[in-house]
């Protein structure tokens, strides 16, 4: 009887310690990088992420098909508007944003691949405990596969691999993450965007960080 009770207790402890799908902090600031398999894209961006107000600011630079690019965009999902900002020339392009907002999170139906320590577990401060997940997402007319790694404590994003038959693999890495908004004003359109008129939507840009969010 005692052995049975001990077995039940240990089983309950193991189930309690098993990682569960989680939601990332609602306010995040940091840097991320993206590389794609088919589009020959390599890019970096400073990002400001607000899941409460459904706002994202991306200041991105990189190369696409051996051509360098740079752009600064503010995505306001609740208003359905995207601003392309040029601070140097103080110009602003306002376009419709028809994409739904998807908060950074591990979906409830994700499968746990495992839990590991990045770095070393030999001493304090030498490593970070992370959980890796996999799953599928139903998108328009296609299914996407993903592999995502987040911290065990805080659910801070580390790396995401995203695959569709159309674009191949996209690898995104997050670093220098800070919980909260370091510069809240980054999520407000600059004063020179006040009189910007909504323009007709052009052809969609090649693979960028938009797919991530």
TrEMBL record:
The lineage of its organism: Eukaryota, Metazoa, Chordata, Craniata, Vertebrata. Belongs to the ependymin family. Keywords: Signal. It comes from the Eukaryota. GO terms for cellular component: extracellular region; lysosome. One of its GO terms (biological process) is cell-matrix adhesion. InterPro entries: Ependymin (IPR001299). Residues 1-16 form the signal peptide. This is Ependymin-like 1. GO terms for molecular function: calcium ion binding. It comes from Gymnodraco acuticeps. Coiled coil: none annotated. Transmembrane segments: none annotated.
């Amino acid at each position: 009887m005692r052995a049975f009770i001990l077995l039940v207790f240990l089983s309950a402890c193991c189930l309690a310690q098993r990682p569960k799908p989680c939601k990332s902090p609602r306010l995040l600031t940091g840097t991320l990088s993206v590389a794609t398999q088919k589009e020959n894209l390599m890019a970096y961006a400073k990002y400001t992420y607000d899941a409460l107000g459904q706002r994202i600011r991306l200041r991105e630079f990189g190369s696409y098909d051996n051509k360098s690019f740079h752009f600064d965009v503010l995505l306001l999902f609740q208003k359905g508007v995207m601003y392309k900002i040029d601070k140097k020339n103080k110009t602003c392009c306002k376009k419709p944003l028809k994409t739904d907002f998807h908060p950074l999170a591990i979906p409830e139906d994700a499968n746990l691949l495992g839990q590991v320590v990045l770095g070393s577990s030999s001493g304090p401060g030498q490593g970070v405990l992370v959980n890796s997940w996999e799953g599928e997402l139903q998108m328009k007319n296609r299914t996407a596969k993903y592999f995502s790694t987040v911290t065990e404590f805080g659910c801070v994003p580390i790396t995401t691999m995203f695959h569709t038959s159309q674009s191949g693999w996209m690898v995104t890495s997050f670093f220098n993450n800070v919980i909260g908004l370091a510069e809240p004003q980054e999520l407000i359109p600059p004063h020179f965007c006040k009189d910007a008129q909504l323009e007709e939507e052009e052809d969609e840009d090649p693979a960028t960080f938009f797919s991530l969010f």
